[in-house]
Amino acid sequence: MSESVEASLSAPDNARDVAELLPPLNMEDLPDALREACARAGWTELMPVQRHSLPYMLKKQDIMVQSHTGSGKTGAYLLPLLAHLDPAEHTVQALVLTPTRELAVQVEHEARTLFAGTGLDAAAVYGGVGYDRQIAALKQGVALVVGTPGRILDHLLKRTLRLDALRALVFDEADRMLSIGFYPDMKEIQRYLPGHPLHATLFSATYPPHVLRLAGEFLQAPELLSLSGEQVHVPEVAHSFCECSPMDKDRVLLRLIQVENPTAAIVFCNTKANVHYITSVLQNFGVSADELSADLTQNKREAVLNSLRQGTLRILVATDVAARGIDIPALSHVFLYEPPEDREAYIHRAGRTGRAGAAGTVISLVDVMQKLELTRIAQFYHIPLSQLSVPTEADAAEALGHRVQATLEAAYRSLGSLQKERLTQLEPLARQLAANPEQLPLLAMLLDGTYQKCMRPDTAALPAAAGAAANQPGERRARSSRNRRQQRKNPPQSEPQAEAQANASPAVPKEIPAHLAAWIDPDGLDLPEGAEDALFAEKPRKRRRHGRGRRQPSSEN
To answer: I want to staple 409 with a disulfide (CB 3.0 to 4.6 A). Which of 150, 319, 493, 515 is the partner?
Structure first.
């Protein structure tokens, strides 16, 4: 990120005179202790995220920082700790939550460099390794603990970690932590936080609604520091493409879904044959997927769309029959298995995500010739288009490994003492299977059940707003006619029945607080100039011939 990047601070009503934008700091403006720490790390100047966030961090103001990986955010939250932590107290005073063990180790290494000679120490705590070394490090009374939420919770439950003296709490790469499924663990950790006020900060590359809700549950009236230019519009639609051969598209699509881990997504195909094929591939790989095409009856279409809206279906594979008039509020991704046959259709397809100001991602799979056509579409609509590297099998395996391990650790923590004792009888067999390469497929087969659970919707994995989908504009527009049909089929429930059904539903956190909801653009789509007209242009409807059982021929290929 270059020094020309401008920071913007957003207030609840987006008024610049309400939220004071503090001047950035340079190296010479820092206290002596912080300058010495920078010298130990070999930093001759501060990076933009550090220059702009340090004034708020040093004042202990809760903020949310929008910054991508590699922008210097680790130093942005570690440096202020030198001014806030007391080396004379041999207790945990700061906690940094990270999505992966690799990032935890990296943060610990940087902290040790910055803290050298100050009397402060750090320890990394993460899963996949034994507890002994971590317990020994915690017993030494480190000031900073960095770790993944699952293993942090393990130590809290074992009482080898206490947070009574905690002063600072940092969420690093919050969007990735939620993507992996750490939200239940983070909510459980919240029960162990002290009653006194904490200085809490949240760093994330994107701020979709579920990240804003997370901030509202852990931070006190936070403000957003955006390093994305003059415009403060955190939720945005990112347009990108992967170049691959036509024969590899199905595998590349599957890996993208595994790596991106969309909350909900639509995969657009040009033909019904491809819709059937891709749906079958995804289903056979354990992905919660269903199809939507002109072959389906209206009732079947509505049933499929309702499953997607309600979160019981994750991936919808469709032709352009789903590109118009469909509003799925929680749709995080749109995948184009092949570019559309006309450029206007691209806008219609892309417009399914990023609704009501939420973040969205559009990824197209193209070969050499399709890449040229997609580039022309992007130039016509002035859409910034970036190229993604094709994810490898190792990339997909790593992403799934993190989620599978997090799910297994959470399941193990929920077991009773007798159940855990029963598992010890199987540990010799587990070691035997793991030691024999020929028997590894047996272990993989056992893990496959957890893998399939990870690839299916999980309402507890993200902080979702209760009733959010039902209150979106598109859903309200479609509700009136649908309600009349449903009332004829399903009579209204009695009050006891309705209460019982509500109690059976999984609990969801509160909605986005008012001071955070203002960051979500209420005007709707975030589209390039001129694209909205194309998106909402109504095409003339074909006159339907009357007569029982008579249907218009499908125009799809």
So the answer is: 150
